[in-house]
Amino acid sequence: MASFRITGGTKLSGEITPQGAKNEALQILCAVLLTPEKVTINKVPDIRDVNKLIELLGDLGVIVKKLSAESYEFTAKDIKLDFFGTEEYTKKAASLRGSIMLLGPLLARFGKAMIPKPGGDKIGRRRLDTHFIGFEKLGAKFLFEQKSNYYHIDASELKGAYIHLDEASVTGTANVIMAACMAEGKTTIYNAACEPYIQQLCKMLNSMGAKITGVGSNLLYIEGVEALSGCEHTMLPDMIEIGSFIGLAAMTKSEITIKNVGLEHLGIIPDTFKRLGIKMEFRGDDIYIPSQENYEIESFIDGSIMTIADAIWPGFTPDLLSIVLVVATQAKGTVLVHQKMFESRLFFVDKLIDMGAQIILCDPHRATVIGLDRQINLRGISMTSPDIRAGVSLLIAALSADGESTIHNVEQIDRGYQHIDKRLNALGAKIERID
Ligand SMILES: CC(=O)N[C@H]1[C@@H](OP(=O)(O)OP(=O)(O)OC[C@H]2O[C@@H](n3ccc(=O)[nH]c3=O)[C@H](O)[C@@H]2O)O[C@H](CO)[C@@H](O)[C@@H]1O
Ligand SMILES: C=C(OP(=O)(O)O)C(=O)O
């Protein structure tokens, strides 16, 4: 387990460019399996989860060519279906959440697929019903083998159907879209997730010859086609990384410019941080955050205490609530952070409390943060990163704190943030990686 040793209390300054989006990359990489032709992907982030998925594609027989630091070419011509079920496949596929999206494309192209229970953050129950009910509606047979923890799906042919998803699951929607692209006839997906990740996936699939309309909404129509061809696709900047950098700048009083953010795809994210009192300027496609001694949380119009809650897109993404929470610890004012989707994602607040933050964990989903308004600095401690976003929140807290902190298990952070220590050190942070 690697650790970060962080010396806090330094203001950062300079420019930082976000990586390509992690959660988009996981969908897009799975989609290369839909065609035997060449697919070129740009702005691929160099992060653990993405690298693991690329390795898994290679093991499955995809020809992987690295064209440059951020570009790859994939050719999924001869797929080794006998790799399924091997010890190596089980180990690798079970280690990340994104592997679940191998199912849709494999089912579409080869009529069968299997996957062990996928990994990802331990942030509460993460059910997969939406995926399998969707596949079943398209005509697939589903089996969960309890002994081996394996999901199997099988279909001699997929037929278009009307599918009302029981929840707007992000990976579930991506999986059903990919399975439906080459199904016979028309598929309607209602209550579809519509995150920019999904919009980007649809854009890519349409450029491969798929016929998907309604993109950006929760009602998608897919006209099945015989086959899909190659394409070139460029990933959007990672909106979660951008939100993390906004929070980092405010918390550490830093003057930072976040370059090429893809502003039109950030939805409600900038406004949510503004409600915490964080000032920012949009300069073309960059976000400039000035150094701020203090920031004050707004109240609701009727004067009541602000609540920041997650919601499915175009609401506020749950992946940024941990960042909001940590930033609020040094704001002036009070905010209720309500994590509606995941039931174990707020438990990391005990570490912030140990650092001196004033937080009441009301229940597993809600925490009230009483901002310290910089009257008292957080103090460095030793802690372990429980999940990817809590990990970065703790890193932000440590960078703002007095003294030295140690964060263990930073592999969690490396899952989704590209060379974060090096990139932040280039802005003046003091982060040492200890292997
Ligand atoms: C690899 C990847 O892309 N991971 C993201 C994806 O995970 P993932 O696709 O696994 O998450 P889902 O969208 O399926 O759902 C997340 C959780 O929210 C609950 N839920 C979902 C929809 C809904 O309408 N109501 C509801 O309560 C689900 O039961 C589940 O517990 O989306 C999550 C929700 O944005 C993000 O946190 C993850 O970073
Ligand atoms: C929860 C997340 O990731 P995953 O779904 O890969 O666990 C996340 O990116 O915040």
UniProtKB/TrEMBL annotation:
Domain Enolpyruvate transferase residues, every copy: 7-422
Pathway(s) served: Cell wall biogenesis; peptidoglycan biosynthesis
EC main group: transferase
EC number of the protein: 2.5.1.7
Record key words, sorted: Cell cycle, Cell division, Cell shape, Cell wall biogenesis/degradation, Cytoplasm, Peptidoglycan synthesis, Transferase
Active site: 121 (proton donor)
Keyword Oxidoreductase: no
Gene Ontology CC annotation, any one: cytoplasm
Binding site for phosphoenolpyruvate: 22-23
Keyword Cell cycle in record: yes
Primary localization class, coarse: cytoplasm
Subcellular location: Cytoplasm
Catalytic activity reported: phosphoenolpyruvate + UDP-N-acetyl-alpha-D-glucosamine = UDP-N-acetyl-3-O-(1-carboxyvinyl)-alpha-D-glucosamine + phosphate
One Pfam family named in its UniProt record: EPSP_synthase
Superkingdom, natural source: Bacteria
NCBIfam families named in the record: murA, PRK09369.1
Family: Belongs to the EPSP synthase family. MurA subfamily.
Function: Cell wall formation. Adds enolpyruvyl to UDP-N-acetylglucosamine.
Protein name (record): UDP-N-acetylglucosamine 1-carboxyvinyltransferase
